[in-house]
Design brief:
mainly alpha; 12 helices; rod-shaped; 271 residues
Length: 271
């Protein structure tokens, strides 16, 4: 029984594919390199936002903007979502539309850094099969030329020519599948992050605006309520906690009520 080995090594298939296998080789290297680089960049950075938003929101509810700023400054650089939250917190005292514009600009920069290289994957996914088809057409031309010049035409000559011509198409499609699969996966991850970022930023801005409105209302109420009232009278009639709550925004006009320890005279002060 005759045993014929019909398998080919990768190098033999490459040589059979012709000159168009060289650009396909470059496309395959570029696809793998870009996909690995984007995978490392995206999955190295932690794209979670819910825990950051919840912590910052608690600071905002307590009207502790410096505390929120300090927390975001201390977050690891891998948490790139903290960058845009920090931009919002740093501009908490500005009008709402200024905060929104700053957040939008920072979000755009952030998304662009994540999507860097996606266009290369799209281009490689489109060029690879086209190059493979071009190699196939070129191979078919050569195959039919050989058939035309042959004196004895048989099915084996036709099959071998078509077989070799289709190699470039196979390699081109494999490269395109890898490129488009990586592109789809990365796009899904970035789109989900962008949606979460938009929602959390919008909620945080509204939280800041509401907190600022409450703080402004408290200042107006305190200014109206305490206008013309002597500081000593307020300190006598109000509990220390209430006095501190309503007069904390006016330290010059309403100094804090001293504690019992502070009010005690030091020995040796009386003549």
């Amino acid at each position: 029984m005759e045993n014929t080995d019909s398998s080919f090594s990768l190098l033999e298939l490459f040589n059979m594919g012709g000159i168009f296998m060289w650009p396909l080789l470059l496309f395959s290297i570029a696809t793998v390199a870009v996909a690995l680089e984007r995978a490392f960049y995206i999955f190295y950075h932690n794209l979670r936002l819910d825990d950051l938003y919840d912590t910052v929101r608690r600071y905002i509810e307590k009207d502790d903007i410096p505390g929120a700023w300090q927390y975001l400054k201390g977050v690891s650089r891998r948490r790139i979502g903290a960058r845009i939250l920090l931009v919002i917190v740093e501009r908490a005292q500005r009008p709402e539309h200024h905060i929104e514009k700053a957040a939008e600009a920072e979000a755009l920069s952030l998304i662009n850094s994540l999507e860097n290289g996606f266009s290369f994957l799209t281009a490689l996914g489109s060029l690879s099969p086209l190059t493979g088809f071009l190699g196939t057409v070129s191979g078919m031309i050569g195959a039919f030329k050989s058939i035309a010049e042959a004196t004895d035409v048989n099915a084996q000559i036709v099959a071998n020519g078509i077989y070799e011509a289709l190699i470039t198409t196979v390699f081109g499609l494999i490269i395109a599948i890898i490129a488009m699969a990586a592109h789809s996966l990365f796009t899904h991850v970035v789109d989900k992050f962008a949606a979460d970022l938009e929602k959390n930023c919008s909620d945080l801005i509204m939280e800041i605006v509401q907190t600022e409105k409450i703080s402004s209302w408290r200042k107006r109420q305190a200014a109206t309520l305490f206008s013309g009232i002597d500081v000593a009278v307020l300190q006598d009639v109000m509990a220390p906690d209430s006095y501190q709550l309503y007069t904390a925004d006016f330290p010059a006009a309403y100094p804090q009520k001293p504690s019992e320890e502070d009010s005690e005279e030091e020995p040796g002060q009386d003549g």
